Amino acid sequence: MTETSLPELEAILLVGGRGTRLRPLTLGTPKPLLPTAGVPFLAHQLTQARQAGVRRIVFATSYRAEMFREAFGDGSAFGLTLEYMTEETPLGTGGAIRNAAQALTCGPDAPVLVLNGDILSGHDTADQVARHIARRAAVTLHLTEVEDPSRFGCVPTDDEGRVTAFLEKTPNPVTNRINAGCYVFTRSVIDTIPQGEVVSVERETFPGLIESGALVLGYADSAYWLDVGTPAAFVKGSRDLVLGRLASPALPGPVGELLALPGAVISPEAKVDGGTTVGARAVVESGAQVSGSVLGDDSVVCSGATVTDSVVGPGARIASGAVLRDAVIGDGAVVGPGNELLAGSRLWPGVTLPECAIRFSSDV
Ligand code: GTP
């Protein structure tokens, strides 16, 4: 990571979304606070931002705003100063940035880092800021390369790195580079976003800046990058952190096949691997197999159950012989014996799925 000599770099963290794609996990907890590799997701972003030279962060909150202050307080545990700005009704990404900017202390020419609160990235943020300053850009966008850009809007650049367009999703994208959700804004540019209005940076601010001839730069690289907005991506993010595919100073244990939090009880006859996190006081009984998953605090995986690439919410119980693959089990839910929940299945908090009554057998 590039060393930065910037004094007191400030950032805005966008954390006000409702995280609808991650329901039911986000019914009670905002996406940026979901336990990920043993700590709230944002802990990974906060420690990385601190390493990149950020000293003060304004949280742009809306959905369940009070939970962020409860989790992170004044930020001193992270060596940061944290401020909280809340939108009574969500103002969209651009409106949220403008609203949060009222709590910035920097002058009009200073760079301000803006982060989506649901991104894991290994890119060199300090270098992105340094390039922004060197080129005197209005905004510098981190761009990442994906295999299938048709699922995203794409962001073409010219030979000098200048962004030439912000294109909507299309079956035939002109580039595989997409917006990676980490921006450096020159402070005065934020002040041009209308205040108190719903504004999208992706659909309005960036296309408008490009149209007006302002220098919008791309900072493209191929470092680790993941948007944890869907259940499958969320589980992948957690297991990648546990396995060390992305380094995080916030990881509360050594990198390895599993991360067991205090009080977790794992039978020696159970198989737990693939970057699984076993929550505090969670139990994995003998003969159970758990791979690449997140087991919440106080959850139980009974003997002979199989859990793969899934999230088991706090206090949930997976009975003997049940099979989960790519599934999300809400807090306190019970999956009765013999059930198979596959391919994106979701069980809402507190629901009990009785013992599976249908048995397929060659004898029938
Ligand atoms: P979905 O409902 O699943 O799309 O999730 P989301 O809205 O929480 O996330 P999305 O990927 O759409 O937004 C990107 C980032 O911007 C996330 O970190 C959100 O928390 C944040 N965000 C989105 N809309 C708002 C808003 O209106 N206000 C604030 N403060 N943050 C927002």
TrEMBL record:
Tree of life domain: Bacteria
InterPro entries named in the record: GMPPB_C, Mannose-1P_guanyltransferase, NTP_transferase_dom, Nucleotide-diphossugar_trans
Domain Mannose-1-phosphate guanyltransferase C-terminal residues, every copy: 256-336
Domain Nucleotidyl transferase: 11-240
Xref: Gene3D superfamilies: Hexapeptide repeat proteins, Spore Coat Polysaccharide Biosynthesis Protein SpsA, Chain A
Protein family (similarity comment): Belongs to the transferase hexapeptide repeat family.
Protein name: GDP-mannose pyrophosphorylase
Organism: Planobispora takensis
